[in-house]
Amino acid sequence: MAITIRDVAREAEVSVATVSRALNGRDNVAAAVRAHVQEVATRLRYVPHSAARSLITRRTQTIGALLPDMHGEFFSELIRGIDRAARAQGYHLLLSSSHGDAGETATALQAMLGRVDGLLIMSPHADPGFIEQHLPEDLPAILLNPVHGHTRLSALAVDNRAGAHAMTQHLVNCGYREIVFIGGPKGNLDAEERLQGSLDALRDLLPQTVPQIVPGDFSEESGYRAGSLIARQGTRPQAIFAANDSMAIGCLFALTEAGLRVPDDIALAGFDDIPTARFTQPPLTTVRVRIADLGGRALDQLVATIANGGSAQAHSVQMLAPELVLRASCGMHSHAAAAPTHNPDTVSKKRAQAGPAVQGKPQAAPRHR
Questions:
Q1: Any stretches that span the bilayer, and where are they (predicted)?
Q2: DSSP structure string for 270-324
Q3: Residue 116 backbone zone (phi > 0: left; psi -120 to 50: alpha; other: beta)
Q4: Per-residue pLDDT tens for 43-53?
Q5: CATH code that applies to domain 160-289+322-349
């Protein structure tokens, strides 16, 4: 039979209440008594009942993460970063996906209430009205995407507009004048910001140019469709900028299938710097988002909020600066050749308040990539 708290109390010759206080970290237990109870519990292989412990501590030691999807390298990296930070903080992780649907987002939030100590939310539907309607005020939560309008929640978001502006500026500086942008899904704030950043750069640098936009939905399949469409055009653009790497990789496959060479016939760039981007042929020029770090920082901030009794230290919206990663797909052959053989990347940081991106020195690739 399973060992109970009463068994531990009997063996340790203390009360059940003392065992509970000792094992739950209460400070009204003498150090020697706490050590003795913990030693007995370990020897008896006592496993506390999580539901009972939650009733006492009012904590589940679980963090909920609500994402729009779990498919693809971006979300894999994001979950990896959240999970790594959660384990370091002593928390478990409960994941759910809304599949981009407002109704499913609300249902998932309701299902997590009472099961988690706090929530990380990445959703295109997380506007102020939705949050007020579906999220209790006493549940700590952090947003992981930009939001339109003021919300009571703090947020961490990538400066998509600055990253897209810097990449478009780089393509123009390379001499490309006819640039097609492959957009993301409608209603997605990241996609809208990336499109706007590219349009801003074209307006600033090539004011006479009519923007060319091909629809996409962040999937490899939509990138493949866009690449096939562009390859069939009588007059092809000089460069393609896809709103994420998955679409860029699908587009690369379509262009190669059509007999076009990247970057000799057409240059190509993406956004996110998912791990696969370094290993395409040619390696993909992209805007680096430190995805795992984004998840880890959000988790740490949420845990700090929980420790503060559920109140954020101060409402804030942190914009994380992306970086340009210049590889061979946009014609950076000479720079790639000059870099160490184990590192094909030339990285250039683009801060939100900074001027035009300036090419940086080659940096060593992260080991986990």
A1: none
A2: -SB--GGGGGSSSPPBEEE--HHHHHHHHHHHHHHHHHTTT--SS--EEEEP-EE
A3: beta
A4: 888 876 554 55
A5: 3.40.50.2300
